[in-house]
Amino acid sequence: xxxxxxxxLSRSDSAAAAYIxxxxxxxxxxxxxLSKHLANLYSASLxxxxxxxxxxxxxAAVKANVLDNAYALNGENLEAEMCEILCECLLxxxxxxxxxxETATANMRAEIIDDIDSVIxxxxxxxxxxxxxxxxxxxxxxxxxxxTHEQAERIxxxxxxxxxxxxxxxxxxxxxxxxxSDFTDTERVFTEAFSKLExxxxxxxxxxxxxxxxxxxxxxxxxxxxxAILRMYFKAPDFDDFRAALMLSVILGGMxxxxxxxNIREKQSLCYYCACTxxxxxxxxxxxxxxxPQNIELTKQAILNELTDIRENGVTDEELEAAKxxxxxxxxxxxxxxxxxxxxxxGQILDDGILSPEEECxxxxxxxxxxxxxxxxxxxxxxxxxxxxxHLDGTTDNNGEEAAx
Length: 405
Description:
Elements: E1 2-5, H1 11-21, H2 31-40, E2 45-52, E3 57-65, H3 78-91, H4 102-118, H5 123-135, H6 149-153, H7 157-170, E4 172-173, H8 184-194, E5 217-222, E6 228-235, H9 242-253, H10 259-267, E7 271-279, E8 284-291, H11 296-313, H12 317-332, H13 338-346, H14 357-365, H15 369-378, E9 380-388, E10 403-404
Parallel strand pairs: 5-9
Antiparallel strand pairs: 1-3, 1-4, 2-3, 5-10, 6-8, 6-9, 7-8
């Protein structure tokens, strides 16, 4: 995991650099050669992605999956070999004279542009991206981590290499392993490889809650589509009881017996789906629903009503127990998934202490209805975003203009 700030470098260049790293390297200069070698390692895999890590930061995750040495048919040290390949990709990419390979860069530029442009075909993702532009205006989350179409078009072998060099020089690098190995080979290989690396000023990991607007912002997008999407962003920058906030989001819209599902979808038939997610670092809750255009305002009010009811009355014992059981089930299944365990532990890097899933269950058990009620009181509506066909919602088209509610 390479954590860096979103700085003056193009987001698209940084994304291209991260993706190119797992497509080829000097030892395996083409994607075909690298893939063939990985296939010979019992179908090992190597891939990367770029996303937001906490607020104000980017994470370039370079990941490798390989069979445990205990299951190798001929006693091969698969762990060590996979780590060596990973270090080759990270530290010896296919470059020449301060530039990535032209063909690899062109292919990655085309892929990034296609990914950016194709998001409009997935309306939920498009709504999430467009809603973030208003909800997180002036913050890193305003723009997708891979940048914009215009930025992606300007990717060159030289600009991508400069982004790679800056990332390698300043990134805070965390090596996270999950599996049945003791990972002594991993430690040995990475220690040897990274001991030769010259580093500069390492970026600082930080928590920065999203800023709450003085008045809720309302923004409407219109594109041809049959239904409509509503997204409502709530923020509590000064509230630090993240477990109560998590329970609140689960009870509102994070399980099959949530209030949004039972009351708004089933009883009132206002939407096709209605759910809620939270971000404990940004300290936000996001409610989102797929609705008929004529039901946008009714659904919005229904969501607000559910939050208001918890503010005033708290939650029932049955809701509290159901939410805890839901979280227990999620946490208890994590040990069956190495990727989930990696995400679990590296997601706590900024915490005062790191807890196992079992230890976290014991902390969740302590959450009370009153704490959840306090969380509901802390969260304030920040942004309302809607996406639907032109003029089908019965409101005035704002032509992309933001307005205060």
